[in-house]
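Follow-up to my earlier ticket, as requested here are the two runs.
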Amino acid sequence: MLITVTRSGGFTGVEKTRGIDTSQRRDARELEQLARRAVPSAADSFHYRIAVDDQVFDLEGPTLTEEQRELVRTVLGEGA
């Protein structure tokens, strides 16, 4: 399994991406289980891209905060 994580933002705006291939790791089973638990399954949920001036945010339906839900409902004019 290939697991890749990208971190961006912060004060300096530096992006860091690193991936690992679990096939040759002694802790492969644990890492793969961790990855499956850490990444929510949202195949049938809505995906949202919210742009506020020049900032863009990509969000998944199940992880929206109440404030994000309210913003989506207000802007789209429908439930979120």
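Run two:
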Amino acid sequence: MTAVSKVAIAGAGVAGLAAAIQLAKAGVEVDVFEAKPELSALGSGITLQGNALRVFDALGAWDDIRAAGYPFVGLNLRAPGPGAPVVAALPDAKPGGPDYPSTMGMPRPALARILLEHAERAGANVRFGAKVTWLVQDDDEVEVFVDGRPAGVYDLVIGADGLNSQVRELIGIDTKPEPTGMGIWRSFVSRPAEVESTELYYGGPVYIAGYTPTGDDTMYAFLVEKAQDRFGVGDEEATRIMLEESRAYDGPWNSIRADLEAGAHANYTWFTKHLVEEPWNRGRVVLIGDAAHSCPPTIAQGAAQGLEDALVLTELLTQHDSLDDDLWTSFHERRLPRAKAVVDASVQLGQWQIDGDRDADVGGLQFRIAQLMAQPV
């Protein structure tokens, strides 16, 4: 017996689809409402740490994701300037444990497609162009309104609708993402054969320049700069800015610039931070993923934390007989400290860059988080 028999999920991102897969596999009736008109994913690529891969295995999606991505070990640090020499090769850490690669890069659209296929195969009903606009709940149920019209009555609503969560607002939580002072340019480009893992360049005109392989022939490149108002910039100007800011970086960046000059698209976002304090639920409505917490991608744990939220929540929902205080206490005890540790560490790593703190223990902090993530959630 499960604590719920019918669940609505707002948002068809990584966390929402992971929750849909697990609940549908357990025989729960699941409706996913996604405001976007079709499956899409902003950005070009995604870095997935081992603890994310461990969740994909629990979902039954690991084989498909492994085939679509590029697993690798280690992290190289390069210096800006001629030749871009490797100045450090950091040792492998396996935050998912010994059974999984330490890290994997893959195209975001491929990840979204695989998770959607698994959710629908498990029996979840996914509706696009359907925004949750109102909720009415009592002690026993929640009525969901989509685009202003009644859409159904549910035992539970999961708000997995991202940074600017409508569900978060509807249940009266006023915590919102705040800019951290950094912005990032990203572009999806071809992968030179010499790039076999993530490589980061510190120094030069931006805080961080880097790239991550996402496939045999692809990778995504990024430049992290001081946050600026870049959101009205057109495609050609975006490419020009990324080209100019990358000229201090040699090595594989020469191939990246060739792709940008040939028309590779550049996109821009700001880094944000927020953490909803306990509880993440209001009655029979609960937040997970970016709706509950966000952080800069300085340790690439954003997606992993949303996946862990979904895994823990669905495990509790399928093991308990009722949606009671014990369930919510267990959920928050297992998720809030871990998510907070990731948010705090990710923000600290970025702040050290902003402050120019050359004595900061970057490697030590990254290692401590990797060790924490290696412990099963």
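The only thing I checked on run two: The mean pLDDT is 94. Let me know what else you need.
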